[in-house]
Amino acid sequence: MGHTHLVSTSEYIGHHMRHWALDLRTMTIGHDGGFMTLNLDTAVISVLLGVLFLAVFYAVARCATVGVPSAWQNFVELAVEKVDGMVGEAFHGDRSLLAPLSLTIFIWVFLMNFMDLIPVDLIPRALTFVGVHHFKVVPTADLTLTFAMSLTVFILTIFYNIKAKGGWGFLKESLTSPFPVYLFPVNFLFRVIDECVKPMSLALRLYGNLFAGELIFILIALLPWWMEVPLGLVWTLFHVLIITIQAFIFMMLTIVYISMAHDAH
Q1: Which pLDDT tens digit goes with each residue over 216-249?
Q2: What local confidence, expressed as pLDDT, does residue 264 receive?
Q3: Which of 41-55, 78-92, 125-139 has the highest mean pLDDT?
Q4: Which amino acids are annotated catalytic?
Q5: Domains of the chain by residue range
Q6: Which of 115, 194, 195, 216 has its CA 20 to 30 A from that of 70?
Q7: Is 2 left (phi over 0), alpha (psi -120 to 50) or beta?
């Protein structure tokens, strides 16, 4: 933590709120400037964490033994068993895709959330030496990423609705529930709202919690060191709980939404 006194408080906060981004209109790299930009920092960090997660789990699986397991093997087996058990309780169909997907969501979201615990100035200040002057290290504090993930869950939900009920069955359910068929316009409107609210709630819940956590760390970094250290420690310990819960909620809601897609309403 810590900050430079050569800039004002508002400039310091504003600096940390800007992304390292690619302007798709001019194909120039700078800080984010509008809708037609790709946040490179979000893409880089999320991909690196995803690759790290896959590499670690792959290496542990390759080195797994039936004898005395290593600590990493114990961790991976515990994570797989717990997630598979939770999926089995909520979803009674073929979970060959949903269980690995749920595990991936939990670990990946947790790792991206965990970036919020890194001192706010550490990585951005180091990157200034290579010409990168704006860099946000918490991918889940970027609304574009949380919406992209939630839209993926939305697409899977629609896919499983059609797979389980057929195209006509899905349409019939949308037109005849919860009210009688002669109120099909109202039924269809409610169904559209219901399906659209799911990805919005997923995206905004995760984004809101992580953005707020990041902002509090930035505000703590503006305090004198004798206040910054104890407050930063307390908030870090509390934030560990938040980032874990948010990853768990995102995973569980994904399981619930896909499970609901298999059920007749």
Answers
A1: 999 999 988 889 899 999 999 999 999 999 999 9
A2: 60
A3: 41-55
A4: 201, 205, 209
A5: 9-262
A6: 115
A7: left
Please report where in the chains the tokens 């629609």 appear, as a residue.
158
Q: Exposure string (b/e) for 63-94, b if CB count within 10 Å is 16 or more?
A: eeeeeeeeeeeeebeeeeeebbebbeeebeee
Six token digits for residue 36: 């037609």
- Predicted pLDDT of residue 157: 92
